[in-house]
């Protein structure tokens, strides 16, 4: 059950019953079906906080919280990025979407350097895009979306000078705007400044 915290209370009660009794009835059906399964659920919020706030049933939480696993965001697990990307690319090869053999060294460096605000789902979408545009051979960096290639860590790669503070700020603002879909309000919130301050910085740096 992905994003189990989004279940509305009536569905939480039904799920609890299935977990407890290991049986259910199909919608519109009259026969009770018994199941022998293992339940795995994921959440991107702290369910203990959701329980305290009354948004999630405490009894359901305890039934699901048998063997809890906590995963850090992908940005904190850089060593997992390339193996996951290779696995997703292999899946695309199995589907016949591409014959790409892997990622070029430059591409691998960009993937590992990106912050992945959308976590694994964003990585999977990027790999699927690469499969669409690269029919064979190694995936070049040019096949990646602009927000990856133009991320701050890549903007000055190979330059013969260190970036200035102005370079860093300008690149980071551009990256944040790309990451949030150019929403002024969300970008300002991520940057920790007001919308007016963001507008001033965009005007100063000529960011469209």
How do the helices and strands follow one another from N- to C-terminus?
HEEHHHEHHEHHHHH
Strand % is: 5-15%
Rounded mean pLDDT is 86
Number of separate strands: 4
Give the N-to-C terminal Cα separation.
41 Å
Outline: extended
Based on secondary structure, the structural category is mainly alpha
Strand order in space, largest sheet: 1-2
Q: What is the subunit arrangement here?
A: single chain
> Main beta sheet: strand number and arrangement?
2 strands, antiparallel
Helix content: 40-55%
Query: What Rg, in angstroms, do the CA atoms define?
Result: 22 Å
Number of distinct helices: 11
- In the predicted model, the low-confidence regions spanning at least 5 consecutive residues are 154-160
Would you summarize the structure shown here?
It is built from eleven helices and four strands, in the order H-E-E-H-H-H-E-H-H-E-H-H-H-H-H. It has helices spanning 9-21, 47-52, 58-64, 78-94, 105-113, 119-133, 146-149, 152-155, 165-179, 184-191, 195-205, and strands at 23-25, 32-34, 99-103, 136-139. It has a two-stranded antiparallel sheet with strand order 1-2.
